[in-house]
Amino acid sequence: MKTKRYRIGLIGLGGMAQEHLRWMNETGRFRIAAVSDVSAEALTSAGNRLGLSEEKRYADFASLIGDPDVDAVVSVTPNRVHADIIRACLQAGKPFLAEKPFTRDFEEAGPLLALYERRPVPAMIGFTYRYTPSFRYARELVRQGDIGAVRSFSIRYLQSWGSAIYDTPYMWRYDKEITGTGALGDLGSHMIDMARYLFGEFEELSALLHTIVAERRHPGSGEPVRIDVDDFASFQARLTNSIVGTFQTTRNAVGSGNEHEVSIYGDRGTIHASTLSPDQVIRIREESPGQLARTTLDVPSRCKRKQYEDFLALLEGEVPDGLPGFLDGYRNQQVLDAVVRAHETKRSVRLPE
């Protein structure tokens, strides 16, 4: 029997879309049937490169979603249209993989949940770090009780490209109307998802948001533009089973290219996992009183699963363990909203509230 190749409609043709194209090609079970972007130039370039006819190049994403030749949608767009695209997919009954964050804010998320409960479709949210082998292995070790009961953790996600020394100009990621929040939604959403993936649900948190670089030059005029979103976020939280943790993210950490890491502290030891060493996990355990053993563990092959393997399985009727689904996106947005409220009110916020 011939293996089915799923026809994908790709919405958004920026830099991150190229990564998704590469991941799809690695899987070998997808082909691009249609593309959509607000840029006519991007449509022409991508359409020509992918060999798509003119009628499969859509300026309007809703038309792509409604195309009967599209089996599933992959959405890689700025945050402002996330809710609209998810809504259109749900209304059309079209399976999708949508980039994070789920929406700009929690107000946009609520109606989507109500619609999903009435008209569910196979859905996946792009929390790609669930597919970093070291994080998957750390989760396995935690579940096995390798370091005993987990008591606390710290998660960091640091980048450097926004640091003042690089003179990064104003862009959509600094525009609240488009993005909702700054580093919090962009990088912090990954930290929140990692905590939920490893430990469980958030119960209470407190937070601080801050803008380090208050103005950036407009790329066209060169005039300074006031920044109205955070570029530093820190918060602390209590999760399921009284596990407590700290979170820190910024785009202003010189020397940090793309550094997402977690340290997990249990009764019998500690686990460190990071994107900097994706195929290894460091474990520290007290093997005997006063004797610490530090071991570098190689990640087993079973923990090296690809994101698009799970998306393929979802389209074929399975829901693999740990797949970030629709409710993961919704709950992630709920926590993001709690972080914002905790910062604005200068008090702890309980979830749900």
Would you kindly provide a brief summary of this structure?
32% of the residues lie in helices and 27% in strands. By secondary structure, the chain is of the alpha/beta class. A hairpin with a 4-residue loop joins strand 11 and strand 12 (244-250).
Describe this structure in words.
With 353 residues, the protein is of the alpha/beta class. It has helices at residues 15-27, 40-50, 61-65, 82-92, 106-118, 133-144, 176-179, 183-198, 307-315, 326-345; strands at 6-11, 30-36, 57-58, 72-75, 96-98, 123-125, 150-158, 202-210, 215-217, 224-226, 232-239, 244-250, 259-266, 269-274, 280-288, 291-298, 349-350. The strands form 3 sheets. The protein has a 9-stranded mixed β-sheet with strand order 16-15-14-13-7-12-11-8-17. Strands 3-2-1-4-5-6 form a 6-stranded parallel β-sheet, sandwiched between helices. Strand 1 (6-11), helix 1 and strand 2 (30-36) form a beta-alpha-beta unit. The protein starts with 5 loop residues before the first strand and ends with a strand.
